[in-house]
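Hi there,

I know you've been waiting on this one. I reran it after we fixed the sequence typo, so this is the corrected version. Both the input and the resulting structure follow.
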Amino acid sequence: MSPIRPGTARVSATSALELAEQAAALGDAVDAGGRELDPSQVDHAVNLVEKVRERTSIAGNHTVVALAGATGSGKSSLFNALVGEQVSRIGAKRPTTAAPTAAIWGRESAAALLDWLGVKARHTVAEDGPAAAEVLGSLDGLVLLDLPDFDSRVSAHRQEAQRILDLVDVFVWVTDPQKYADALLHDEYIAALSGHGAVTLVVLNQSDRLAPEALAACREDLRGLLAADGMPAATVLVTSAVTGAGVPELRQRLANAVASADAARARLSADVVAVATTLRTGVADSEPSLDGAADGDLVAALARAAGVPVVVAAVVEDYRREATSHGGWLFTRWLAGFRADPLSRLRLSKTAVSMRKVDEADIRAVVGRSSIPPPSPAARAAVALASTALADRAGAGLPVRWSNAVADAAAPGAESLSDALDQAVIHTPLRARQPVWWRVTAALQWLFGLAVIVGVAWLVVLGVIGWLQLPPLPTPKIGELPIPFLALAVGVLGGWLTALVNRVFVGVGARRRGRLIEGRLRTAIAGVARERIVDPVAAVLARHARTRDRLDRARRG
């Protein structure tokens, strides 16, 4: 017999390391994608990763080939012809095959593999049997399975056939001139497994029923159907279990598959590629990028909700109060002490609460909440709009599940966000360096106040002496004005002018202090926005990117 060229049963080389990397990539993609991937396909992927682990851990170098087909296609007869013995029962009643039967070539035990496959009926083919002499090479390591009909009227038979087909290494689809165009065969099996062309053979059995011309036409029609199924390069072998035609060629194809010693890995690799390709449809080719910083609209909305304008107004008022206590007129500024501390009313400290010795879970217990008024409905709506705008921008172009995940990440709980904003305000220092001019105006006010005190005291003494008609004291003058009067006048006028100038400086300084503290508060609010909204959104986008990368790695095979 002339040598048979390798056909589609000779598989492309897939190393164990490459298969392991593929399966690991698929597992990583499922871990990264999580709920944002099709749940049914995720379950399939998880089971497939486990199947790869189990199949590759089984000792031995066997190739499992399944003869699968519809009722009456002659699978069992072809199985017996390949084995060279009557192993599988053949009868007139349909369906005949209720459970898979295995034929094993070679001395190496396949017990562990068959236990994993769940095949109980086993037959070891004799080494010197007629089948072994008709092939170039060796069939040692071949495990040939005769499966129940996949179109059986008995549901248990169909389920068993499907279970075994999910586990085998090489598919041999057996059909006949009557059912070669059957929609079930092409739509549910061959087309669904079109990515497994490297481990697929198609056999047109019962060729003895047709004349040569009709057989050739039937074979070409079957090739056209296979091309429509996504297997344009599939080879169609023509056999007859009755006459033995084509059986040696089929047996040689199986020997080629066994010789390659890669069918199992090729089948598993094709499975990984198929599942990864399906999952890949749920992932976009790219994702929007965030620079890690919250946009101005979001920070502004959160600042409003956190009561930053109220806090800034209190800081400005507190600044005016303190500045007046330093540079106001010495004899009236004490009145400012009767006004309540605006920051104390809000339960805010001018210095940031130390966090170094406080556990995050105990923050509320230690520092409590401020008394900043709760956000108005308009402020809450502004936060919702800004968060939604961020989510829309970050989720643009993503599949629905990923877009929803982005939206969920951009919408933290209102209560937790409110707490975080309040703590950000509490832990922001509201104190700044005391201006130098405060000390200057304070010194001037004390100087002018002292002049007033001296002038008043001197004039009182002079008045008392005059009232008692005592000898008058000499009173120095400058020009026509006595010095006591000048001291009083200069003290009052100087203090008033200093207070007036101080008031102008206070207005300018208060606005600057307000801008400074507002900047600090906005920075703290931006940190909350980044931590509670931007970072979670960025994490979803990062998971999306990793899912795509790992799926693409799994698809490369």
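Quick highlight: The radius of gyration is 45 Å.

Best,
R. S.
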